[in-house]
């Protein structure tokens, strides 16, 4: 009876974290370099049916660009640990610029997807309807950004690269002190597939590794999952009794 209750609670927690899936229509990759060292590759899946105009802007800035300016060579200029990293300023490369394929700014497309997880990619802005070229990647749930920043994608691969950038030293204004930049970018041919906006790798395991939870709580979570697995094994060996 006790085991069944634990399993019930576990499944309840999991079910509460389920959310709607959206179609990934395209994928964009960034090769990231820090100084003269290759840091890794970030692959971003784009929710092209949810935010087609925003996704088109992102794809073209990663490839064709505006007035010869693309994301290649631009820095990740800002990091707020356990919140987000920011980059993509193709105009000034310091967080002050704004350009898009539609003009200096373009309107907020919608706020359909919420900032309920790490690994979400959203437009950075300076207020309503001021989207341009800059984007953020969340490193935790950021509900205070709901109805303010347009989410248009999520990190599919490269969570460890995001967290390496996140943990670089910054100044008092959260500006990254080392030069970490996009050395290459492009589009990956993609057969559309569906993804939940939630990113469990970034939200749980990567947070544990990054020290988001108190150490004792981290161990408690790991022990809980080990207990569940052990009990499931016993349950299977016992023929479900």
From TrEMBL:
Task: Tell me which positions the record assigns to the signal sequence.
Answer: 1-19
Q: Which GO terms describe its molecular function?
A: cyclosporin A binding; peptidyl-prolyl cis-trans isomerase activity
Q: Which Gene3D superfamilies match?
A: Cyclophilin-like
Q: Which GO terms describe its biological process?
A: protein folding
Q: Which residues cross the membrane?
A: 204-225
Q: What is its EC number?
A: 5.2.1.8
**Pfam families membership:** Pro_isomerase (PF00160)
Could you state one GO cellular component term attached to this entry? cytoplasm
* Residues of the PPIase cyclophilin-type domain: 29-187
Per the record, the domain of life is Eukaryota
Keywords (A to Z) from UniProt: Isomerase, Membrane, Rotamase, Signal, Transmembrane, Transmembrane helix
The record's InterPro entries line, in alphabetical order, gives: Cyclophilin-like_dom_sf, Cyclophilin-type_PPIase_dom
Asked if the keyword Chloroplast belongs to this entry, the reply reads no
User: What's its catalytic activity?
Assistant: [protein]-peptidylproline (omega=180) = [protein]-peptidylproline (omega=0)
- Write down the PANTHER family for this protein, in alphabetical order: PEPTIDYL-PROLYL CIS-TRANS ISOMERASE
Q: Which family does it belong to?
A: Belongs to the cyclophilin-type PPIase family.
Instruction: Give the function comment from the record.
Output: PPIases accelerate the folding of proteins. It catalyzes the cis-trans isomerization of proline imidic peptide bonds in oligopeptides. Acts on the folding of rhodopsin RH1 and RH2 (but not RH3) and is required for visual transduction.
Instruction: Please report the name of this protein according to its UniProt entry.
Output: Peptidyl-prolyl cis-trans isomerase
Provide the species name: Phyllotreta striolata
Task: Kindly list the organism's lineage.
Answer: Eukaryota, Metazoa, Ecdysozoa, Arthropoda, Hexapoda
């Amino acid at each position: 009876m006790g085991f069944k209750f634990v399993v019930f609670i576990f499944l309840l927690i999991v079910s509460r974290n389920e959310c709607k899936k959206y179609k990934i229509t395209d994928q964009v990759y960034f090769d990231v370099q820090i100084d003269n060292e290759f840091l890794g590759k970030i692959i971003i899946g784009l929710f092209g049916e949810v935010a087609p105009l925003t996704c088109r802007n992102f794809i073209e800035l990663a490839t064709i660009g505006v007035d010869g300016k693309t994301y290649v060579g631009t820095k990740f200029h800002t990091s707020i640990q356990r919140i987000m990293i920011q980059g993509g300023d193709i105009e000034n490369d310091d967080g002050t610029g704004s350009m898009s394929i539609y003009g200096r700014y373009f309107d907020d497309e919608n706020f359909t997807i919420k900032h309920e997880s790490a690994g979400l990619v959203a437009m950075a802005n300076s207020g309503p309807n001021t989207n341009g070229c800059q984007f953020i990647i969340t490193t935790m749930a950021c509900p205070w950004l709901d109805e303010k920043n347009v989410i248009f994608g999520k990190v599919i691969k490269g969570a460890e690269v995001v967290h390496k950038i996140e943990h670089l030293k910054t100044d008092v204004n959260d500006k990254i002190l080392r030069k970490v930049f996009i050395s290459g970018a492009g589009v990956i041919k993609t057969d559309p597939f569906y993804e939940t906006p939630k990113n469990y790798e970034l939200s749980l395991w990567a947070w544990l590794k990054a020290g988001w939870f108190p150490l004792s709580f981290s161990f408690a979570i790991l022990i809980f999952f080990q207990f569940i697995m052990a009990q499931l094994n016993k349950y299977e060996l016992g023929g479900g009794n």
